[in-house]
Amino acid sequence: MLALLLFAAVALAAAQNDTLPRPPAPRREQFRVIYEWNVIDFEWKSPEDREAYLNTSRYIPQNVLISGINFYQDDLFLTMPRMLDGVPATLATIPVAPSDTAPKLRPFPSWSQNTVGDCNALQFVQNIEIDKNGLMWILDNGRVGTLTQNPDAKCPPSLVLIDLKSGKNEMERIPFSPDTVNPNTTYLNDLVVDNRDGDYAYITDNSAVDPGIIVFRRSDKKSWKVRDTQSMSSVAEATLFRINGTSVELPVNIDGIALGPQYRNEEGKVDRKVYYCPLSSYHLYAINASVLQNESLGQQGKGALRPYVVDLGYKASQTDGMKMDSTGVLFYGLIGNSTIAEWNTTVDFRVGQRTIARDPNYIQWVDRFTFDNKGNVYVVINRLYNFVKNLVSVNEVNYRILKSHTGSKSYVLSEDLSEPTSATGPQSAAAAPALASSLLLLAMAQLLA
């Protein structure tokens, strides 16, 4: 009997050890510059090829701007939207491990698959996402020269998929229906991927005339668009941007988007929060993914979403790109403040925002974020305000990639609540103290009987 009592005591002690506070999170580092460029150059097939592109204005160095960024294995993928002429490639890679502070970009998947005017090739890529299965989701607007007097809708706006795990880099192109996306006015800006129920993508379209969120379901390649004028449109008081003495007027609609972790709602069903904001706004909004997945709302007009949209509150400045980590921490920029901020979504947005970096010299227009597999977050700084005003100087640093170790990983790797809990999962761990206590009480009862 004494042996049983000792066993129960040991079990109770072990169970209590399981409930001790977890070790502290990895120590955070300050953001530091790992790459910077005055102008963007490429890995050309030959010096003669580069010269030919320059002589025919197919490559105009000051017209190439880095916008999006994503991580996979040993590479960072960068996007160069063709807002102006002279952008020879719209998607390219550089190594994660720096060997040069201003590396040349390697067009991806190849030079030929970045050919302007070839509708089997990439035309205008603003942003990409890479999901937990190694599938790259590419937004191709199809229309080039969006900052010129004559934008050219060369090809249909499309979603392009590439299975990176296969190594073949074959592109599956899925054009959007004209009923969903107007090829002459759309601007496919950013996306998040939800690997549930057949895989969904939620895409911001900051069209000047018809802003909204496009929902794409991969299982049947169907898409629809939902709209809410109040939360997805620019507001007059936020269209003026002031950065380091430069002012620019940009009335831009819905722009950044992020996807929160899975959770169970009051009915016990798994859902997620989608967060978004117009570029020209001081507010952050949220809506349930389950609402966006209701395709009938796309047919009910602009007021259909209104009851489901939550205004989370006010930000100190405007935000372009944003990214969620796997635990529900949102990383975002505050452009007018030269600031990178974060918010833990378990805390009220109105009191939970936190500045993690501020520097008017190095943080000049925060664009997109990504995470690698070692707990690092990367952010693109691109001085977009100079780009849109045609003030890019080739004698100054215009594009930077900053990096900080935060211990974070991407939202695409967040916990899947639809999977059954294993025997060693959280539920069994939580039950261990109760089991040990029961054993101890049973042993004592036997001893005293």
UniProtKB/TrEMBL annotation:
Family assignment from sequence similarity: Belongs to the major royal jelly protein family.
Which Pfam families does this entry report, sorted A to Z? MRJP
* The species this protein was found in: Spodoptera exigua (Beet armyworm)
Q: Which UniProt keywords apply?
A: Secreted, Signal
- Tell me the leader sequence span: 1-15
- Domain of life of the source: Eukaryota
List, alphabetically, the GO terms of the cellular component aspect.
extracellular region
Q: Where in the cell is it found?
A: Secreted
Please give the InterPro entries that the UniProt record associates with this protein. 6-blade_b-propeller_TolB-like, MRJP/yellow-related
Q: What is this protein called?
A: Yellow-x
